[in-house]
Request: fold
Amino acid sequence: MNSSHAIAKWTIYNIIIPNMKQDTFLPYVTADFINEIIETCKLICESAGQAVSRFLGNVLGSAYAYGYMPKDIRKDMIPIK
Reply:
């Protein structure tokens, strides 16, 4: 496992999953759902919000590109600086 995979795995299991209030099937994920996760993770620290936003943006882009999502919702995600 390279360092990028290790960081992604750590982000998923230690930041994203513990801060999710519900589980949603990928085709039904909305920008509001993603933004709620990002906002919750930002409370941990600003870099957590940035990491989650960047990671979920990549995941959502791939999901849309491969046809797992009917719409690309990345443009509707809250901006994180």
Summary: Residues 35-81 form one domain. The chain has a mean pLDDT of 89. Residues 54 and 80 are 9 Å apart (CA to CA).
